[in-house]
Design a protein that fits this description.
- The chain is of the alpha+beta class and 378 residues long.
- It has 11 helices and 10 strands.
- Helix 4 (70-84) runs antiparallel to helix 8.
- The radius of gyration is 21 Å and the shape is globular.
Length: 378
């Protein structure tokens, strides 16, 4: 459980926290609002050296977990990234590696480079006007049609994280025999990237157009049933670490607000002494602990390869997506007028939580997925 990590996990977590505090303090995160890119590539490589990208990948490809519980360790890192409202393509890289960890031998060097942080991969799954359809098995409207000795890829993907910095796009598409996934280099002729806006100051997304992009068969990572399994793993990993990030951001907002309530006086008393505010903070703390409990229960299920893993992930993503914004919004309100100013830092964490709620399955989409799972089991 998250409240009692092992000594190795705690060291890993604290190393990440100290690294973030020294390299991306709040001032740096704010500066990214006006920067052309959301993060520095050398900074990301240093994070990869700490082990952020290694957890799900076998040691033969440069990976390996700290204690044999890779998803739990990824959730601990994600919490720290959320606490710092840190930049970087952690979620999308984790998602991509969840699918690439068991792929063809000819991609071994590519996966090893991604783990090392020298290559940046991002998952291109969303399509304009569509939700997170992979929860219901949809491959989307992007098509991969056989052409010569390879495939011709046509379609549009949006909400692609770090699209403007990516070296590779892991594209989920519809092939001749069902779902197919292809690893497409960003410089391939016919690939066009346009930056798009997000509410999160340090997280960039983009729209990627594939206009008759020709790739060889070596670009295929999975097809058919193997692609379905890979996409499910990617969707689960993305949803889980996003929920962990949001829980971390909510914890930071709540801790900061608690300090504020003890420091701020009105009518000669600290705000923390008022009964109604105590009740609100107690509710928020209860919801936060439930958020963390669902996240780490899902992570433990993943690590144990439990049959209910898919259900637990949707429970975590739907619960955190519903409660973390409530916690963050209440923290803003408890700060009064200063809480809604640009100069105060709370909005950085509210922005991260709000974007996290929307990506990789909204609470509503995951609740529907839970009912579908229950129906199929009945």
């Amino acid at each position: 459980m998250p409240h009692d990590p092992t000594a190795d996990q705690r060291f890993f977590q604290m190393t990440t926290r100290e690294f973030l505090a020294s390299t991306v303090p709040t001032e740096t995160v704010r500066a990214l609002a006006d920067a052309g890119t959301g993060f520095d590539r050398d900074w990301w490589r240093r994070g990869a050296e700490l082990g952020w990208t290694a957890m799900l990948v076998p040691e033969s490809l440069g990976g390996g977990s700290v204690s044999g519980h890779p998803m739990t360790e990824l959730a601990l890192v994600a919490e720290e990234l959320g606490r710092a409202a840190a930049p970087g393509p952690f979620v999308t890289t984790t998602a991509a590696l969840a699918g690439l960890r068991a792929t063809a031998d000819h991609l071994a060097e590519t996966v090893a480079a991604i783990v090392a942080g020298t290559l940046l991969v991002t998952w291109a799954v969303y399509e304009p006007g569509a939700g997170f359809g992979v929860l219901t098995g949809e491959a989307g409207g992007t098509r991969a049609v056989p052409a010569g000795s390879g495939y011709r890829l046509t379609g549009v993907k949006d909400r692609v994280e770090a699209a403007d910095q990516a070296d590779l796009f892991l594209v989920t598409a519809t092939g001749p025999d069902g779902p197919i996934q292809l690893l497409v280099p960003a410089e391939t002729p016919g690939v066009t990237v346009s930056p798009t806006w997000t509410i999160d100051l340090s997280r960039r997304t983009g729209k990627v157009v594939f206009d008759d992009v020709v790739v060889g068969t070596d670009a295929v990572t999975h097809s058919g049933a193997a692609a379905v399994a890979a996409v499910r793993a990617q969707a689960g990993a993305a949803a889980l670490v996003t929920a962990a990030e949001s829980a971390g951001a909510a914890e930071h907002a709540l801790t900061r607000t608690l300090t504020w309530l003890f420091e701020r006086y009105t009518f000669g008393r600290p705000l923390a002494s008022y009964q109604s505010l105590k009740h609100r903070m107690a509710d928020n703390k209860t919801w936060l602990e439930a958020c963390r409990a669902t996240v780490f229960a899902a992570a433990a299920a993943w690590d144990a390869e439990a049959p209910e893993t898919d259900e637990y992930i949707s429970i975590a993503k739907s619960y955190v997506g519903a409660k973390a914004p409530v916690i963050a919004q209440d923290c803003v309100q408890l700060h009064g007028g200063i809480g809604v100013t640009w100069e105060h830092d709370l909005h950085l964490f509210l922005r991260r939580i709000t974007l996290g709620r929307a990506l990789y399955g909204t609470p509503e989409e995951h609740r529907r997925h839970i009912t579908d799972l229950l129906d199929s089991a009945a």
